[in-house]
Amino acid sequence: MAKKRREKDASNIKLKHPDRSGPSEPTLLQLADERNLFQQALDREKELKRQKTRASKSSGESDSDEDDDEKEAEVAGLPPRVEQIMDTLLWTISLSMLHFTLDVLVQNQYAVELSWHDVSVRTGRAFLVFVLLFYTLHQHPSDPTLLRGLPARFQNPLRQTIFFAASVGAGCYLIYITNIYSYLAVMKQAPPLGCLWVWSVIELDLAWAVLSLACSAAFLWQGGYDFK
Questions:
Q1: More confident residue, 162 or 62
Q2: How far apart, in whole angstroms, are the C-alpha atoms of residue 191 and residue 104?
Q3: Range of the domain at 47
Q4: pTM of the predicted protein model
Q5: Which residues form the signal peptide (predicted)?
Q6: Is 5 a domain residue?
Q7: Please, which residues have CB within 8 angstroms of residue 200's CB and are 6 or more apart in sequence?
Q8: Strand locations in the chain, DSSP E?
Q9: Over the stretch 60-71, which tens digit does the pLDDT of each residue have?
Q10: Can you list the pairs that 48-57 forms with residues at least 24 positions away whose Cβ atoms lie under 8 Å?
């Protein structure tokens, strides 16, 4: 059987005020203040922040140095002449594929028996010509100079003038032969002229490219020609 707890009578408890005199011995805060521990902690925190700042700066400089070294290694690993050759091969292979396609389309247009051997031979010859022209006239990033001895500010205008003349000439002459010459002349001349026209327009700045196409369109309209 559970026993009942006796409750003390509150009237028997003596009441008194709490001791407000304060501690008789130094507290932990006072001891820390006497030993200057708070100031030491602040100084230590500042020192750690300075060390972190130095470490981050040094790591950033090392990363930038590594990036610069990698870029220099990449540049050093690809000589300008090799870059020009690779750029030339990339473009001329694309132009040769375009020549191959135009050659096949022209022969199909005139219902001529297609000879893949002859088409391949003509494409190979066009490839060699395109390699020479592209390597000489294209503005390579590693060597944008077109004419030695000419000031740099005249290099791009000279190149744009050449491609503008080539674009207008190739476009107008292609329109002319397709309307005037026989199918044999068209089959022989249309593929290289078409490639030269496309390449010249690509090499031109936008304003000059639009102007060259406008000249070809004006020639088409003025002569009463059409695309056959």
A1: 162
A2: 9
A3: 32-76
A4: 0.64
A5: none
A6: no
A7: 163, 164, 166, 167, 170, 212
A8: none
A9: 555 555 555 555
A10: none
